[in-house]
């Protein structure tokens, strides 16, 4: 198994590959139209949509199509331009053309179709309750890979089942790789350090302009000047600097960041620890695809939905009906005797953190309870065509780039579009 991974992957806690596949090289996302994502919604939820609004079906459900903008900024743009406050259940990258569902609790003056600079909003119907995460089954991807060494990837398909469910680089800020670092400092109550990292941290993969701005941001005396120079895409930095410029403290500055983005900081740190745990397990020769005695596991309900979590019983359970589960660190984390819990405990010791620190009294809205995530990637319906376009489905929360890195094995993930 090839363990020579790029440095940026290691910054995200991804320290290995899971397949022996050679890799086809190439790149993705040269053109956003060639990276397409569509949400797959539970059929029972879709079956209860009404085409007319009545007392039982009050809430409008929209299909939100967007390009060149992430989901959070798309919601801001729609609210600013159309006056509609939306809730989405999945966060989608800016470097893609995406189609997802969005609900609104505004039950009057319904717009049937509208567009903004980066979005198209179409009314799907009306629902009894706003859409929630439980209604999302997964995502379907259609992705073009440019300049592959080969286009016949039949030999890759049997390897897919061996891929671990790593969080992708997007979770950590891609080129900057900063989100989890901010999250750790929040967990450790180092709020001033969290703000400094958010504004000034950079990596060798960052753009020249970003590096220049962030180097200036190390000096608080320059904030008033920098605020006037910031490009529109640095709206988070603008908010934070504006609060600091008014003499307010780091907690107030962090709270100027929208809550859904703010929560991503701590969630990214949870993701980093998860990736480290999964990497160590793979490098230690553990089979992360099959449940083992002592593991917690998900029951498999269907091809893309995982059911209740329980301890795996090798004497009564069929391996094909369960998937290994890994605990996400949080304030309710209570390690058991399973192989993944032991690894997570070792990582926490190295990181110098404890579960109770994830209950953040100073910023309770960022407290993280913990949870569970499946260890294998669990991709379904993988096909390929042409010079090379791949199509596949993943459960919610899994990353297409996690599968693609095993297929492409990029020397430089950032240049390759990851």
Task: Tell me about this structure.
The protein is built from twelve helices and 13 strands. Helices cover 29% and strands 20% of the residues. The chain is globular and about 60 Å long. The longest helix has 25 residues, at 259-283. The strands form two sheets. Strands 1, 2, 3, 4, 5, 6, 7, 12 and 13 form a nine-stranded mixed beta sheet that branches. It has helices at 7-11, 43-47, 71-82, 179-187, 191-200, 208-216, 223-229, 235-245, 250-255, 259-283, 339-351, 400-408; strands at residues 35-41, 59-67, 87-88, 97-103, 113-115, 119-127, 136-144, 296-302, 305-311, 322-328, 371-374, 380-385, 389-395. Among the domains are: 7-33 and 139-169 and 379-408, no CATH class; 34-138, Alpha-Beta Plaits; 179-259, Hypothetical Protein Yqey, Chain: A, domain1 (Orthogonal Bundle), CATH 1.10.1510.30. With 418 residues, it is of the alpha+beta class. α4 runs antiparallel to α5 (191-200), α4 crosses α10 (259-283) and α10 packs across α11 (339-351).
Which features does this protein show?
nine-stranded mixed β-sheet, four-stranded antiparallel β-sheet, Alpha-Beta Plaits, 418 residues, alpha+beta, Hypothetical Protein Yqey, Chain: A, domain1, 12 helices
């Amino acid at each position: 198994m090839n363990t020579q991974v790029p440095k940026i992957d290691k910054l995200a806690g991804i320290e290995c590959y899971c397949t022996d596949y050679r890799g086809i090289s190439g790149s993705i996302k040269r053109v956003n139209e060639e990276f397409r994502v569509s949400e797959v919604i539970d059929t029972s939820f879709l079956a209860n949509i009404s085409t007319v609004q009545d007392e039982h079906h009050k809430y409008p459900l929209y299909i939100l199509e967007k390009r060149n903008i992430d989901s959070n900024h798309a919601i801001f743009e729609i609210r600013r331009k159309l006056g509609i406050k939306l809730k989405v259940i999945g966060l989608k990258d800016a470097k893609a053309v995406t189609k997802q569902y969005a609900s609104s609790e505004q039950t009057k003056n319904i717009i049937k179709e509208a567009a903004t600079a980066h979005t198209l909003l179409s009314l799907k119907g009306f629902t009894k309750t706003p859409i929630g995460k439980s209604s999302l089954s997964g995502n379907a991807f259609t992705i073009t890979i440019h300049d592959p060494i080969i286009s016949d990837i039949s030999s890759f398909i049997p390897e897919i089942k061996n891929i671990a469910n790593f969080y992708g680089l997007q979770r950590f800020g891609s080129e900057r790789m900063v989100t989890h670092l901010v999250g750790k400092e929040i967990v450790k109550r180092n709020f001033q350090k969290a703000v400094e990292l958010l504004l000034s941290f950079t990596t060798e993969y960052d753009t020249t302009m970003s590096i220049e701005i962030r180097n200036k941001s190390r000096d608080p005396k320059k904030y008033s000047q920098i605020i006037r120079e910031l490009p529109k895409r640095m709206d988070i930095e603008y908010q934070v600097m504006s609060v600091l410029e008014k003499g307010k403290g780091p907690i107030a500055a962090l709270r100027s960041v929208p809550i859904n983005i703010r929560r991503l900081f701590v969630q990214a740190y949870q993701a980093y620890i998860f990736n480290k745990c999964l990497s160590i397990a793979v490098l230690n020769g553990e089979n992360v695809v099959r449940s083992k005695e002592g593991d917690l596991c998900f029951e498999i309900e269907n091809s893309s939905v995982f059911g209740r979590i329980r301890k795996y019983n090798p004497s009564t359970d069929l391996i094909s009906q369960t998937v290994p589960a890994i605990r996400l660190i949080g304030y309710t984390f209570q390690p058991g005797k399973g192989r993944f819990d032991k690894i997570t405990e070792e990582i926490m010791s190295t990181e110098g953190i404890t579960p109770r620190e994830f209950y953040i009294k100073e910023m309770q809205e960022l407290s993280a309870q913990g949870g569970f995530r499946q260890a294998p990637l669990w991709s379904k319906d993988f096909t390929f065509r042409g010079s090379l376009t791949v199509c596949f489905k993943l459960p919610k929360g899994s990353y297409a780039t996690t599968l693609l890195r095993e297929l492409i094995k990029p020397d430089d993930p950032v240049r390759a579009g990851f």
